[in-house]
Amino acid sequence: MPSFIDIKGNTYNRLTVINRTANQGKKTSWLCLCKCGNYATVFGQYLKSGRTKSCGCYQKEQARAIRTVHGRASKVDRHSDTYKQYSREITLMRKYKLPIERYNQMLKEQDNKCKICSYEFGQKQGDIYVDHCHTTKEVRGLLCQGCNSGLGYFKDNQDALAKAIDYLNKGK
User: Hey, how many other C-beta atoms are within 10 angstroms of the C-beta on 57?
Assistant: First the structure.
């Protein structure tokens, strides 16, 4: 059986041992002062092994850090406005390399309307589409669903679009 070792005054991670408390079974427990100012009673073996690092404040900090992405707290509620806005910003950057500031500037320049047909955005949720060249990945403008889909169906082929315009003009 190992002999008792006095660890009073020692510091383990964020905990400084103040005094020995009553044993719980065969385990020696110690009263500790955490760097945050709270007290905690901890088993000696947990202090020495590093299993217990703080009074609980460290775990809370770690959990907060996990819930924080790019300096912003992500929300568990995926329907909140904060989460939707953050999600949109991340998507714009990931897919189009388009900062939210530039996106908002484009909306303002286009008077909150589709660049082709002047459909006013905001009539339906999610009615703004970022149009971009699939070859160069360069963003061209913000379009409504119909205009964006039309360009997509024509695969950005200007000759096919010109033929479509001629076709429509002959039908008049």
Answer: 16
Tell me the pTM. 0.54
How far is 47 from 10, CA to CA, in rounded Å?
A: 10
CA separation for the pair 137, 135 (Å, rounded): 6
Query: d(Cα 75, Cα 80) in Å, to the nearest integer?
Result: 7
pLDDT at 64: 76
State which fold the 99-170 domain adopts: His-Me finger endonuclease fold (3.40.1800)
Separation of alpha carbons 156 and 49, rounded Å: 64
CA diameter of the chain: 102
CA dist., res. 132 & res. 2, Å (int): 71
